[in-house]
Amino acid sequence: MILKIGSTSRNVNIVQKNLKMLSYDPKGIDYIYGENTETAVKNFQSENSLVCDGIVGDHTWNALIDKIKNIQAALNSYGFNLAVDGIAGIDTYNCLLRFQEEHNLTADGIVGPETKNALFKNNNNSLTDFDISENGVNFIADYEDFYAKPYRGLDSQNQTIGYGHVIISGEHFESITKIQAKALLRKDLQSFVDIVNTITLSLNLTQCQFDALISFAYNCGISALKNSTLLKDIKGNASIEKIKEDFLMWCNCNGKRELGLYRRRYDEFEMYKDADYTRTYRDF
């Protein structure tokens, strides 16, 4: 998905509504991606560790959706019955107004600082719960490998640079330092951070457990984590041995067990269990 200056669609309308509820006013909800919407998007991106280009691609879209999902889930914890769909529609707006009125807040349908504090004060979750730790970022970078110059990824369609960063439209790189690559990796990880926060909303994870799930999702895909027995068993309080089995199920490539994937899954499990971020080079 790419939304930018000149775009006109229902998705632009969703972006504008979500931005406004999150206190990034696009100065109008009119289905037209104009300069005011671009400015609001840039402000949102800047404050949420996203590439600040004023363009709504997949990462920015996912972040906007996940922020609203967290608001909807928090409202439901106060007795409302909203669909947690990530869209700041009329039902979410009306429930937020009622919440603000019931808590003697300015009833404007915007989650500013006072409303945010009230909405999440009895909730262990917030608009941004965990962030990936520095140890987690370094672990992922070590496994992704560093490339200073652009190269073609496995799909042969996209160029990649740094620690697995896919170069998108509008980005131009001739070369990159490790420091710059690490900064890009952190931004790329942000959408995974937001989604994993959402799908683990009811769980009491530790930092190392959260980092392990981020690494798993970044490598295997967020859909793989969402639909995995790993997440199901974590939510079901399965034994640590069962959690280990769940991690190690994801070691195959083209139907064959792959040593590099086995090592990463085992290391992710040890991170999850013991907060051990060390990369090991064990054999099968």
UniProtKB/TrEMBL annotation:
Catalytically driven reaction(s): Hydrolysis of (1->4)-beta-linkages between N-acetylmuramic acid and N-acetyl-D-glucosamine residues in a peptidoglycan and between N-acetyl-D-glucosamine residues in chitodextrins
InterPro entries: Bacteriophage_GH24, Endolysin_autolysin, Glyco_hydro_24, Lysozyme-like_dom_sf, Lysozyme_dom_sf, Peptidoglycan-bd-like, PGBD-like_sf, PGBDSf
Biological process according to GO: cell wall macromolecule catabolic process; defense response to bacterium; killing of cells of another organism; peptidoglycan catabolic process
UniProt keyword terms in alphabetical order: Antimicrobial, Bacteriolytic enzyme, Glycosidase, Host cytoplasm, Hydrolase, Plasmid
UniProt KW Coiled coil keyword: no
SUPFAM superfamilies: Lysozyme-like (SSF53955), PGBD-like (SSF47090)
Signal peptide residue numbers: none
Peptidoglycan binding-like domain residues: 10-64, 67-119
Statement: the UniProt record of this protein carries the keyword Hydrolase: yes
Chain ranges passing through the membrane: none
An MF annotation (GO) of this entry: lysozyme activity
Entry EC no(s): 3.2.1.17
PANTHER family in the cross-refs: LYSOZYME RRRD-RELATED, PTHR38107
Family: Belongs to the glycosyl hydrolase 24 family.
Protein name (record): Lysozyme
Organism: Clostridium beijerinckii (Clostridium MP)
